[in-house]
Amino acid sequence: MGIATINPATGEIVKTYEPLADWEIENKVALAQQAFESYRQTTFEQRSQWMMAAADLLEAEKEHFGKMITLEMGKTLKSAIAEVEKCAWVCRYYAENAANFLADVPGETDASRSFVRYQPLGIVLAVMPWNFPFWQVFRFAAPALMAGNVGLLKHASNVPQSALAIEQIFQESGFPSGVFQTLLIGANKVAGLMADDRIKAGTLTGSEPAGASLAMAAGQEIKKVVLELGGSDPFVVMPSADLEAAVNTAVTARLINNGQSCIAAKRFIIANSIADEFEEKLVAKYKELKVGDPMQPDTDIGPLATRSIVKELDEQVQAIVNEGARVLIGGKALDGPGNYYLPTIVTDIPATSKMAQEEFFGPVALLFRVADVHEAIQVANNIPFGLGGSAWTNDPEEQELLINGIEAGAVFINGMVKSDPRLPFGGIKRSGFGRELGIQGIHEFVNIKTVWIK
Fold it and tell me: I need a surface site. Which of 130, 200, 377, 429 has the fewest CB within 10 A?
């Protein structure tokens, strides 16, 4: 199946779409370039009005958009509505702060006047994933459009209704025609777009192979990219932690978005002295979870986005068991229609496990036991990823060791890793490079121009 909405709860094909022809793609790129030439001259005040209108529209129609998200990729309706609300937040944040973030920065030199000026680059191509079909787009679009850039969106092929709805939101909010457009195209068109001189930069959230492909295409053209890729975030719990709070958060941190989140906690690294109790409490919490129709308000875990994700996840679980690990709960897909996989906890993972190096993109938690904070940091870093990390301890010395020691783009102490418009977001190692959100995010796609006046 190409570009289509397929209900992951039932397997029903809801709607299919024809990919754009080459001439249609060309027309949209030409319109984006034409739009940029005039849009870049608009004021921050005008852009802010349009962005605030987008936020208002998102909030007014959050249930409608939430149902669309749930229908397309399977997250629970309550979490889909929360995603739309977060998109309104990021729109307001940049509407209120972009002018200050991009104001001229004076510097003292041998000139009579010198300063740094931030100017937009032009068309930015965004290649976005299905797991947060609104949020991933808006966290790029809000700062990029407020900076004076224009956007082209190549969204995941299983969320076309969300992709088209986002374009419509920006149009209805008053942004000029061509400032933000959705391209219903396959991944095979991305390299050609990056080779187009009118497209100045790219951003991608997704898998390592997808990120490498975009980076190669951009590298050949010497163009800027921001990549937010996979993660296998550690969740470290030390003896001084509030164990009840850690366990409760662990359930949410692992199973948010049905477990399909780059920054979900995936590896739980627990001090030996509290490991039995943590494990017992975590299993008890998992037993209480309701798996079912994501549209129902009492559902905790909905279906995974596609059938292939279920198959791949199950193969990973079976492979790690074959290495010697043990399943405490779950460990299989549900029979019948829909892409359901039971919430799963795996323990007794051998130190030599190759599967423990992989990202499990679904409701599977891996449990590890360690002697102390130093071993915890060693295990936390023993992966190719470096997106985020959560650590639970009330010992100030341990907190400092974990903050400095965990190799990741973010470390949260006694809390769940999450993205926040007010803070930069991104990873290191094979989790990508560059930052979204915060002041750093809006600076990614601007020309940071030095001005020197005698």
Answer: 429
pTM tops 0.85: yes
pLDDT band at 149 (very low <50, low <70, confident <90, very high): very high
Is residue 328 within 8 A of residue 364, CB to CB? The reply is: no
Q: In sequence order, what are the beta bridge partners of 268?
A: 235, 367
Q: Which of 435, 379, 49, 81 is nearest to 238 (CA)?
A: 379
For 267-327, the three-class secondary structure string (H helix, E strand, C coil) is EEEEEHHHHHHHHHHHHHHHHCCCECCCCCCCCCECCCCCHHHHHHHHHHHHHHHHCCCEE
Backbone angles phi, psi at 120, to 5 degrees: -65, 155
Average pLDDT of the residues of the chain: 98
Active site residues: 228, 262
> Residue 1: pLDDT above 90?
no
Query: For residue 432, which phi and psi values (nearest 5 degrees)?
Result: 110, -170
Let me know if 312 is exposed, middle or buried by CB neighbors in 10 A (0-12, 13-18, 19+).
Answer: middle
User: Strand order in 432-433's β-sheet?
Assistant: 180-182, 150-154, 123-127, 199-205, 224-228, 432-433
What are the pLDDT digits (tens) for 280-335? 999 999 999 999 999 999 999 999 999 999 999 999 999 999 999 999 999 999 99
Q: What domains lie within the chain, and their CATH numbers?
A: 3-229+431-453 (3.40.605.10), 233-420 (3.40.309.10)
Q: Nearest-CA neighbor of 59 among 102, 19, 90?
A: 90
- For the chain, helix (H) and strand (E) counts, in that order, are 14, 20
Strands 364-370 and 344-347: parallel
Backbone angles phi, psi at 204, to 5 degrees: -140, 135
Token pair listed for 265? 């906690």
CA–CA separation, 315 vs 323, rounded Å?
12
Residue 27: count of CB within 10 angstroms of its CB: 13
Six token digits for residue 256: 């948010």
